[in-house]
């Protein structure tokens, strides 16, 4: 009866196990990306055929990506981000975590950046992914930042001002908010402005997800 495998055998077994683990991690990452892509596409009501035509990929390939069976290239992701008008970083930033936390917990240092500082707005996704009926976003509006033209989205949104000063105009009526105030937008045009001299931090809940 053998007491243990030869050293070479143990080394080969270890390498095989490591490769299997890496493959599992890659598959899990692909599956998570696919879940987000499918949720984003459905929230925007875009058929696979329309997305495929826009980025030059087949419906079959995109279906495999959404199911975690194929990996899109960086160029694919750039085109998808451009099509949906979202930052490329939305598809990245998934730091390795305890498997029990996957899809449940988002650590402060693992949030995905989804805003554009050049526009005076920096945003982080607080939700683990985009598969839920809603998303939670932390938005930081830099001093003087403003949305020039009203935005109209097919969503319901609730915001809570954590700190700073914030103005929100909803359906033509402007409201001045202070820390602790909250607001709700129900399929109405809105725009915002930070009139203060410090960043305004707002936590938004948006349904369905727009990022």
UniProtKB/TrEMBL annotation:
GO cellular component: cytosol
Record has DNA-binding as a keyword: yes
Gene3D superfamilies in UniProt: Jelly Rolls, lambda repressor-like DNA-binding domains
HTH cro/C1-type domain mapped to chain residues: 37-91
SMART domains: HTH_XRE
Keyword entries, A-Z: DNA-binding
GO MF annotation list: DNA binding; DNA-binding transcription factor activity
SUPFAM superfamilies found in the cross-reference section: lambda repressor-like DNA-binding domains, RmlC-like cupins
Name this protein carries in UniProt: Transcriptional regulator, XRE family with cupin sensor
Organism listed in the record: Tistlia consotensis USBA 355
């Amino acid at each position: 009866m053998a007491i243990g495998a030869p050293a070479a055998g143990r080394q080969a077994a270890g390498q095989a196990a490591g490769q299997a683990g890496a493959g599992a991690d890659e598959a899990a990452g692909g599956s998570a990306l696919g879940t987000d892509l499918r949720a984003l596409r459905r929230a925007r009501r875009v058929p696979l055929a329309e997305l495929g035509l826009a980025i030059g990929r087949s419906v079959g390939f995109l279906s495999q990506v959404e199911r975690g069976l194929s990996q899109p290239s960086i160029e694919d992701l750039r085109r998808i981000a451009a099509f949906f008008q979202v930052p490329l970083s939305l598809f990245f930033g998934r730091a390795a975590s305890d498997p029990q936390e996957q899809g449940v917990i988002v650590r402060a240092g693992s949030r995905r950046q989804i805003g554009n500082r050049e526009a005076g707005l920096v945003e982080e996704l607080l939700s683990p992914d985009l598969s839920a009926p809603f998303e939670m976003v932390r938005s930081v509006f830099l001093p003087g930042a403003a949305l020039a033209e009203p935005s109209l989205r097919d969503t319901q949104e609730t915001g809570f001002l954590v700190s700073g000063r914030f103005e929100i105009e909803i359906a033509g009526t402007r409201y001045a908010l202070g820390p602790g105030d909250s607001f709700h937008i129900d399929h109405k045009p809105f725009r915002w402005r930070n009139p203060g001299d410090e960043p305004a931090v707002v936590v938004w809940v948006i349904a369905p997800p727009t990022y």
